[in-house]
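Section 4.2 – Deliverable D4.2 (structural model, holo form)

The reporting period included a commitment to supply a predicted holo structure for the target in complex with 2'-deoxycytidine-5'-monophosphate. Inputs used:
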Amino acid sequence: MKQIIVAIDGYSSCGKSTIAKQLAQYAGYRYIDTGAMYRAAALFAIRNKISDFSSQQSDIIALLPQVHIDFAIQPDGTQHVTLNGEDVEKQIRTLEVGNGASQIAVIPEVRRYLVAQQQQMGKNGGIVMDGRDIGTVVFPEAELKLFLTASPEVRAERRYKELIEKGEQPVMADVLADVNDRDYRDTHRAESPLKQAADAVVVDNSIMTREEQMEAIIGIFDNKIRPLR
Ligand code: DC
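Output (structure tokens):
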């Protein structure tokens, strides 16, 4: 059976990775979290004394050849991102690294470097890839494109809960401001801004449960692959 490329794009904290993982599991496809790649690159920059992502862009670009990102499959089937062979899945999930990722993602050379790797990882299909530019830039020919969205307040609330679960002590107003800042940067950058592909199916999950959403998405996926069987 033909294995397709599923591109999932959308705003931060709207549940893209949960959906992408579940859909990959359902389909028996590989899941690639491209946000984790930008986060790992940002972590490398932070560890290499980059403190100002906008004024130190040329230093960041010079570091790129030393950045080797991959995914290691865990015994339970989940994937952890690795940076030069080190499992950094936990270290990349902080607010600091998330902000760094959003800032590093505006640099065209960084995007080109990571997009080339993403295209290589997905070229044979059988992949669910999530990010901001998957349906528009990485795989504009993807057979199925989903664009996920939810209101900033709902997303801030979800992010707040995740941070609490990780033992951080976030302030709700800061988390909401952070969601809004990240949305602004993701949609207004010159290079590959977040935007919905013309042929993407939009799913607004503000008032959907995870189960309702998954059911809807599995239905969309099945409809897409049925004629290809
Ligand atoms: O999905 P995430 O929150 O882990 O992504 C972290 C940052 O990386 C986000 O602010 C935008 C950026 N990103 C991107 O520009 N392009 C992608 N394909 C994935 C993420």
